[in-house]
Amino acid sequence: MAILMIGIDHNKADLDVRSEFSFTTKKMTEALDFFMGQKGVDGAVMISTCNRMELWLSTSEDLLGSPVQMLCDHMGIDREQYDQYFIERENKEAVSHLFRLSAGLESKIVGEGQILTQIGDAAAFARSCYATDNIMEVLFRQAVTAGKRVRTETDLSTADRSVIHTALEMLKKEGITVEGKKCLVIGNGMMGRLSAQTLMDQGADVTVTVRKYHSGIVDVPFGAKRIDYDERYGLIPDCDMIVSATSSPNYTLTKERLEPLSIDHPIPVIDLAVPRDVEPEVAQFPWATLYDIDSFQIDIHSDKFNANLEKAETILDEEKEHFREWYEGRDIVPTIQAIKKTAGEDVLLRMTPMFKKMHFADGQKDRLEKEVEGASERMMNHLLFGLRGQLSDNTFREVLDAMTAVLHEDKND
Prior knowledge:
By secondary structure, the chain is of the alpha/beta class.
């Protein structure tokens, strides 16, 4: 069996290439169903964000062919055209990458926290598609645990927790601030809401677009104004900044629709979407300065940051070791469970003669027997996992075999 990961390397692939491998919910469902139908694939999870597409597979020896080729065949694209952008990892390297990813160490903005939520959401979505097996479940659960530890035990925030935070910090260095300014946020999904809230936190007057087809309460940050999506162009001449963050397959701003507008002041236009929300030709307008997701980087080399980075790596090593122990020892879990159960039954059997001499109120005897049996199992569990931490894998397996034999003999006497 193996753990495999394939993905588009965001260090090599520009925004247009990443857009080709951006999966909507529908496309992701179809891809997971496709891979679960392949011989040798036992579990699958896909992560699709603005910066990456990664597919994780739990496979058996029956797997035939390359997962990269399978994905390209499923998408109907020529592998040779995009082969240079793919990266493949397996087993230890794949596990290490996922844990570093969960901690924000593989993000363009080091330490950003959104990826942790995205990893958890990816596992939950795959589960809803019946695509996860036990290995994928434990791997992603352990990765999220590792990411949470890094978030709580270190400080890698560097004052930049998301792309919008980074964008505003970068613009601030260029003399552009948002306090008291009118800002239009196109989109009220997760990224749109985060952008709106961040702008308001910095003192901006924020308006968020909403769609007519939304029913009930539209979730926009408290204090933000709202405008119908179709009316967005009418607000733009009065704006000081535009942020677009939708999952729309179409451009939210086009050169053709902007051309008739009379705009006499500079407007930063920040496109946080993959695929792009804003038509690239919008940058040709003298009033527009267009930024996309690739425009924002972070370069922090302080001693404090490096110390926290080292601590984060230590935490990840610990959590990876926990997963390794589980992964390599998952075949002996049934043996451990059997030993615990036998030990509990044995202790209870030995105490039965004493129980018979005692007088109990109604139900008291049953409760005591369950407590004795449970305490015996917990004691054996503590002993076994203590031994596992002290002994080599081969020696521990020999101990389990010996204990199984002894308990089996005692049971037959």
